[in-house]
Specification:
Elements lengths: L7 E5 L4 H13 L4 E8 L9 H7 L4 E6 L1 H15 L14 H16 L3 E3 L8 H12 L4 E3 L10 H10 L13 E4 L4 E4 L32 E8 L2 E5 L2 E2 L2 H14 L4 E7 L5 E7 L1 H17 L2 H19 L6 H13 L5 E8 L2 E8 L7 H4 L11 H9 L1 H14 L1
Parallel strand pairs: 1-2, 1-4, 2-3, 4-5
Antiparallel strand pairs: 6-7, 7-12, 8-9, 8-13, 9-10, 11-12, 13-14
Helix pairs in contact: 1-6, 4-5, 7-8, 9-10
Length: 409
């Protein structure tokens, strides 16, 4: 029996395979509700072309395309960068932190439009369903959520394509190259098809595969240098030119992409418990993380630096798990922001065929003292002081060793 109580639905709409078939499916399985499509523009560029026509043609009453790029970079990407957060020490969270900002805007529109429900196209196997729904709970705890993948009879991408073809829904791909992709200003992910077997090497020569990067083999034979300026942990300029957050990431994507920077092939542990394999392109982000790490080696003291690594892991898990709008993430952010007060300076890097090579770092807050660290003669550091330090530092070990030896007598 169709649910007649749902008369207006706001749909998280990308125009991809899932959300394209969801609109007619909702029409068929509810009492012909009004469907308002919402797309959050987080830098997916050409994917937004023709989106309104497609949404209306398949049954939506209207489409909101919300420009979220500046907020995405300033309030989500940069805070995560400053934290140094990498999920499982590798993944730069490109899809993960894009979901909360999109979901938050969808909730705002749903409340304004008086919607009865919010619908998303996330699968029951993935992380995104959690990220979307935790954000909905944070801002509209009583809102009904419709997740077709958890209820409909469609069981695969092939069956989705069959449904789309049967309903005359145009698709921008065919079965042979229908990788599951997610694109934004920060990254592009690839999953599915031949990538489902970790034994298969990705087909980097497939013209439908890499979009943001060339392979290292295709990169120029001459190295390229890039200089990035930071203020309080945030990047503010590239090669001496001040840029806004969106423009800065875009510029580094171009530089990194043409040098084969930022392609990773990983098997990760999903939140729902299974492992998944994906290939990610994050050219500008990879450069920024590297540069930020280099600058912190100069500006953070040892204890803060080591503890921040622990915080980075916890922060990454919170972002990956969709817990952006939580007290713990906000509290960790306060710690991170405090550590960034002196993370100001310039980092120079050499890019060559997929490699990032350090080429110099400076900061007005540098804790590196050449007079102390030098191997040459100095008048600052008394090397004989280290004997007393070692005696005290090693005292617990010495006492234990003495006890052990006495026991053996």
């Amino acid at each position: 029996m169709k649910d007649a109580s749902v008369k207006k639905i706001v749909l998280a709409y990308s125009g991809g395979l899932d959300t394209s078939v969801i609109i007619p499916w909702l029409k068929e399985n509810y009492e012909d509700p009004e469907i308002i499509a919402v797309s959050g523009d987080v830098g997916q560029s050409d994917e937004l072309e023709g989106l309104e026509e497609k949404a209306l043609k398949t049954g939506a009453s209207k489409l909101f395309i919300e420009d979220l790029k500046y907020e995405f970079v300033k309030d989500y990407i940069f805070p995560t960068l400053k934290a140094g957060a990498k999920y499982e020490n590798t993944y730069l969270l490109g899809t993960s932190f894009a979901r909360p900002i999109i979901a938050k805007r969808i909730v705002e529109i749903a409340l304004k439009e008086g919607a009865d429900a919010i619908c998303h196209g996330c699968t029951g196997k993935g992380n995104d369903q959690v990220r979307f729904e935790l954000t909905i709970k944070a801002f509209a705890p009583h809102m009904k959520v419709i997740a077709p993948w958890r209820t409909w009879k469609i069981k695969s991408r092939d069956e989705e394509i069959d449904y789309a073809e049967a309903h005359g829904i145009p698709l921008k791909f065919n079965r042979a190259n229908s990788y599951s992709k997610d694109k934004n200003l920060w990254h592009l992910s690839h999953e599915g098809l031949d990538l489902e077997s970790p034994a298969n090497m990705p087909n980097y020569n497939n013209k439908n595969f890499l979009e943001m990067c060339v392979t290292p083999e295709q990169a120029p034979d001459k190295a390229e240098f890039v200089k990035i300026s930071f203020k309080n942990g945030e990047p503010v300029a590239v090669n001496g030119k001040k840029l806004g957050p969106v423009e800065l990431v875009a510029a580094l994507n171009e530089i990194g992409g043409r040098n084969g920077i930022g392609i990773i092939d990983i098997v990760e542990n999903r939140l729902v418990g299974m492992k998944s394999r994906g290939v990610y392109e994050t050219p500008g982000g990879t450069i920024l993380y590297h540069a930020h790490d280099v600058l912190e080696t100069l500006t953070l003291d040892r204890d803060t630096s080591h503890y921040k690594q622990i915080v980075a892991q916890q922060y990454a898990e919170l972002v990956y798990y969709g817990k952006w709008f939580t007290p713990l993430r906000e509290a960790l952010q306060a710690f991170v922001d405090k550590t960034q007060e002196t993370v100001t300076g310039e980092v120079r890097l050499k890019l060559y065929k997929g490699n990032i090579i350090n080429a110099g770092v400076t900061s007005p807050y540098s804790l590196y003292d050449e007079a102390i660290a030098t191997f040459a003669k100095d008048e600052v550091y008394n090397q004989s002081d280290s004997e007393g330090f070692i005696n005290l530092f090693g005292l617990p070990m010495k006492v234990r060793a003495m006890m052990t030896q006495n026991k053996k007598k």
